[in-house]
Amino acid sequence: ExxxxxxxxxxxxxxxxxxxxxxxxxxxxxxxxxxxxxxSGIFTVLLHKPLGLLLEEEFAGGTGVQVSGTQKxxxxxxxxxxxxxxRLLRANDTDIETLQFDAAMEVLMDLxxxxxxxxxxxxxxxxxxxxxxxxNLINMLSSKDAVLVDRVVRAARSAVRTNVRAARELGxxxxxxxxxxxxxxxxxxIKVRFFGIFSTTGNVNDSYSCNVSATGVVDDTVGEGxxxxxxxxxxxxx
Length: 238
Known about the structure:
Blueprint: E1 6-9, E2 12-15, E3 42-47, E4 53-57, E5 65-70, H1 75-79, E6 87-91, E7 94-95, H2 101-110, E8 115-120, H3 135-140, H4 143-161, H5 164-170, E9 172-184, E10 190-199, E11 207-218, E12 226-235
Antiparallel strand pairs: 1-2, 1-4, 3-8, 4-5, 6-7, 6-8, 9-10, 10-11, 11-12
């Protein structure tokens, strides 16, 4: 049976939907800027309790725990590096990735604050490569619009990977297969459509294609420069 998302509080486990614990100023994380290894995807954070992490089983009935989100204004959110889909490897010196969900929760509850968490994020080597696009579409786009489309597709790819519902229903987005539709709208937003390769196990040999549609707004004065305003995914029944 699928486990409910859990929020880690001091001395108790609050299930999703219960009142969020408030964090006293003295409970804020004091680690500074955690280091993220872009080659291995492994990073470490030091968090005071309540952690403010929402956790779930990586795969139903199996071992492994992954982050599904962070609570608003929590220590986990303030640290700024933890994302949905990150896997929990260790808590202090205890190996978490080989434990089932309930056992992992017990370990986390018993540890004293602060807690040193080691996490990993999937490293997608192909992300840095050029994206494939159909020949008729590339002929229709100006060079400027092609750059905007590329940015929105990459932002949509990241949005899918950090979307809890998409991860639960479709699995992991391994890569963008090909861009099959795109256009700049009258309001300046960019609509894109592409096929993405997904896997419910993380194994490329056990993958399938999904049709992803997204609308994005490019504004380099805000955040990372691209805001995804609409996102949808549908399995390719073909």
